[in-house]
Amino acid sequence: MWYVTTPTDPFLADCRARLAFDLLSHTWNAVVIWSLREGPLRPVDLRRRIGGISSKGLTETLRRLQTNGLVTRQAHPGSPPRVEYGLTPLGRTLLAPIDAVGAWGLRVRR
Amino acid sequence: MWYVTTPTDPFLADCRARLAFDLLSHTWNAVVIWSLREGPLRPVDLRRRIGGISSKGLTETLRRLQTNGLVTRQAHPGSPPRVEYGLTPLGRTLLAPIDAVGAWGLRVRR
DNA sequence: CGGTATCCTATAGGATACTG
DNA sequence: CAGTATCCTATAGGATACCG
Description:
The structure is a homodimer.
Chain A: H1 10-13, H2 15-25, H3 29-35, H4 43-50, H5 55-67, E1 71-76, E2 82-87, H6 89-92, H7 95-107
Antiparallel strand pairs in A: 1-2
Chain A binds a DNA duplex through α5.
């Protein structure tokens, strides 16, 4: 997504808009963020909640979101291991845009 | 994206929300739709406006959006050929969600 | 349970060349 | 200019097995 030609469109010329699209273009990103909207969840619950996501897929997604400062990881000591993922303040700000997209889908007839 | 397990999350259980995410998950979909917001454009202008999209990529994207009822294609007779793509009313309804995402990107520090 | 390591496949999507 | 046809590669992401 590195421009060879500079886009005429100022909206697109500002790569940050494109980065936002790229963020949501990862299959699970939006879904995972959305699933955390009500509070932190453990991976196992997250998977149940989402449905159809592999363990690997979830871990990778969470790692990715973590790296981008959208999600926090908190490990509670003990056995069996217990880890919880939640949204950062920045992550929360993505809920509105994501909701706009999801809500659009719900509104549309298919 | 066909659920093996039914998602616990009602928002996600309704596949239409997921379909919306999938729609925007295609690299160029959002960008192309966005670029048509001010009116119909010819492919060549669209490419200039977007920057970095291949001819093949654009054609495929437009075809895809057309199939989904988001974009119209109008061919004007004559030579050289002149074709214009524009948004359908349904396509227009996507502008708000897309804008929400793009605007988020612009707001965020990186 | 959370996470990692392998392996494997489908496919997105660019580069290039070509047609009407 | 609009579009198609080939070719090619990177990679997303599932399946499976395994570890602490």
